[in-house]
Amino acid sequence: MNSSQPSERIAICGVANPQTMNNNSFPTGPVDLSKFHEALFLLIVGDIPTSGTLDAKLQESDVANFASGVTDIPGKTMMQLVATDDNKQVVFNLKAEECSKRYARLLITASPHNNIACAVALGIKPRHAPATDDDAATVAQIVT
């Protein structure tokens, strides 16, 4: 029986904070795949207005800030969400071997306005435990 805490096996690597998205794209922070065997990205959707749509896809880059060399990860694009998809979630699974670059993120694109959503990027199966060593700086507490 494994006595470690779930937080020692899963790290919160990045987020796209809850917000009203207006005709723009919003990324999560990156998961460093040199530190994790897998990543999980959770998109959490609130209200999508009648004329609104929400798209999301996984991307990769060799640099953590995604300033260059950004490419879409094949097969990791969701079906578009529309107004009838209010209060839904989408889960993106990713294995490190599916990528050719070091970092992965989720990019959310909202159109035209007032879409409400957020996302969390999780590093799973750390190459060196505990995973909490690689939590984002925004993680305020871990309660066990």
How would you portray this structure in words?
The structure is a single chain. With about 140 residues, this protein is mainly beta. The chain contains no helices and 10 strands. The chain has strands at about 10-20, 25, 30, 35-45, 55-60, 70-75, 80, 90-95, 105-110, 115-125.
| Basic shape | globular
Mean pLDDT: 95
Q: Per CATH, which architecture?
A: Sandwich
Task: Outline the low-pLDDT stretches.
Answer: none
Number of self-contained structural domains: 1
Rg, rounded, reads 15 Å
CATH topology: Jelly Rolls
Helix content: under 10%
Pairing-aware structural class of the strands and helices? mainly beta
- Using the coordinates above, name the CATH class: Mainly Beta
Helix-strand topology string: EEEEEEEEEE
Beta-strand portion reads over 45%
Instruction: Count up the helices.
Output: 0
Largest sheet, strands/sense/barrel: 6 strands, antiparallel
Q: Span from first to last CA?
A: 18 Å
Compute the number of strand runs: 10
